[in-house]
Amino acid sequence: MKRTLFPLLLLVGLSFFSSCHISGTEEAMPDTTDALSNSPASEEGAAPEVKPAEPNVKIIKVANLRFQVKDLQASSDNFQQQLSAYNAFIFSSKNLNSEERNELNYTIKVAPSQLDGLVKALQKESIQLDNLHISSQDLTMEYVDVQARIKAKQAVEQRYLDLLKQANKIADVLAIEQELKKVQEETEAMQARLNLLQHQTTYSTLHLSMYQLLPVPVTEEPGFLTDALAALASGWQLCRGFILTLLYLWPVWLIGSAVYLLYRRYSSHKSTIA
């Protein structure tokens, strides 16, 4: 009986030890699920959606502003002081003066983002607004088109350069150089156009006209004495002119007198004969 019970106890003990060992092993193992869930890839989740880049818009803005001011010189001084605050500069200027008004005309270059602010600041100088017009022209498609054409021309130019390196005959070299020159000239013309578009869209244009009305002098109506003196002066000028006209005709008087004397002598001589 003891021999039969001993193996049984040994088997139970081994089973208990094995179960404890497995349990300890499971407790000692780290929780990889939590570790994976806390990994940077899990925290970041899916890759963020990439937004398409916004097109580089190229817009020309032109403003026309005309108004009347009280003091043209003071308004001009204030206007020139405001240019620095808006990073603007005078491109050209013209001064027009007449009996009725004094006028200053300016062409101003300013950044597109500063145009509206500058226009509002300048309107504070006006006492009467005559004209305000702001227009814009979108050149984005033309700008992109010119850029694409330049890249295409540059690719053609590179192919011609590669062919030029491989050419062995003089005729081939001359023909390739001629075509290469044409492509380079077209590329330079397109680059000049691109630079012009870039310059036009870098600065907006403001045409400014400021003017000051001048007081009209009031003329008083002449009195009776003034009219009488003017009449005497006019009469004297008339008499003077008449006398001078008679003096200018002295040859006529001389010839007439000679003819009259000859006629009288002839008449006397004829009566005596009769």
UniProtKB/TrEMBL annotation:
The chain crosses the membrane at residues 242-263. It comes from the Bacteria. Residues 1-22 form the signal peptide. Residues 28-51 are annotated as: Disordered. Residues 173-200 form a coiled coil. Keywords: Coiled coil, Membrane, Signal, Transmembrane, Transmembrane helix. InterPro entries: DUF4349. Residues 58-264 form the DUF4349 domain. This is DUF4349 domain-containing protein. The lineage of its organism: Bacteria, Pseudomonadati, Bacteroidota, Cytophagia, Cytophagales.
